[in-house]
UniProtKB/TrEMBL annotation:
InterPro entries: MFS, MFS_trans_sf. This is MFS transporter. It is a multi-pass membrane protein. It is found in: Cell membrane. The keyword Transmembrane helix applies.
Amino acid sequence: MKKNISFQMLWLSQSLSNLGDSLYILSIVTVIYKITGSAFISGLFPLLRVIAQAISTILVPLVMDRMKLLHLIWISQVGQTLLFAVMALLDLDGHSTWLTMTLLFLVFWISVIHGCALPARNALTPRLVSADYLMKANSLLTTSDQFVLLVGWSLGGVLVYYLGTTSVMLITTGLMVLSTLCLLFVTDSSNEESLSTKNSGKWKQIIDGWQYIWKDLDLRIISFMELVSNFGGAIWTGSILLVFVKEALNKGEIWWGFINSGYFVGTILGGLIVWSLSRIIEERVKQSILWGCAILSAATFCFAINSNPWLALFLSFAMGLPNQLRSIAQRTFIQAQTREDMLPKVFAAVTTIMFVTFGFSVLIMGAIADFLGVRTVYMITALLFTLTTVLSLFIKTRRLNATKEEHVQSKIMTK
């Protein structure tokens, strides 16, 4: 993989793009809150992003049949860069309702375009690296995503304070330009055409990935596990975690930042561990998913019943490690389990599940926190991760039984 220039440039491109994206999010939330003074309207920003990205991933299979994945990613980057440039040219220090509506309109379309890139990137990765390095490549991409988010959120506030939102948007646009240029050095050597006919109905093209998942029991279970895991991901949204820190730990915003950062550090370290042990983990993908889910469930339960802030900080770090192991192992399993021509559409379906369930979970978990208490949210999440542990055990057991049957059949054939 060290000699794989195409993968390295894809990785660099996505890292620059994610850094720009984190700076842009912080800038726009700051601007909208400054204009409206409303936390509710500012909260529409992430909700609008999730809705737009979900729409994008539902409809992107229509495009995947008509262009190469690399071209799709390139167009996505160019489109986002142009819209970021338009944002940078606006008077972001203004206070008009027109500015708010314009920003939300641009946010929607940036999110639609951005939603196309994630499933395309995950489907392109196996084409750029050999099967032996797939786990290592996934861990590098995932760890970089988490590290860039940590840096972006930490650095973004400082930049907005000292330079202003317009300057930060110009920096974002520059990062996106560099990200787009990196893609010029990526070469997809795969010449396989999609087996799905381009003349088939649009509805058929949209549901191809969903049908493929439904026909494969392992993919069906993994997709359901993604749904359950992302539903539990609401515990790391800023609002719910802040309530937990204040009500369960009796601490303020400083500890909120500590615990949030502890989780990110855990995910980064988890990604590095997966990267360094990729050969071992790749040979035990199903076991890795099982142990990742089991440890995450136990750590979340301990976090839910704990009242000590220092222990909560350690547990937030401890939750990041298995969550990263589970996430990377599941992505690698999907890539290995799916036919290459169907992989983009399968990832589009899985990504849709991620966006939709996360969006609903923020609303539902927020309501549960208000009516039943914030500890209940974390207890429910621990139960959800326990469910994923049971499902991963089923996959492991089923695969083991299938291997034994194949071994018996081969012995019979030999005799």
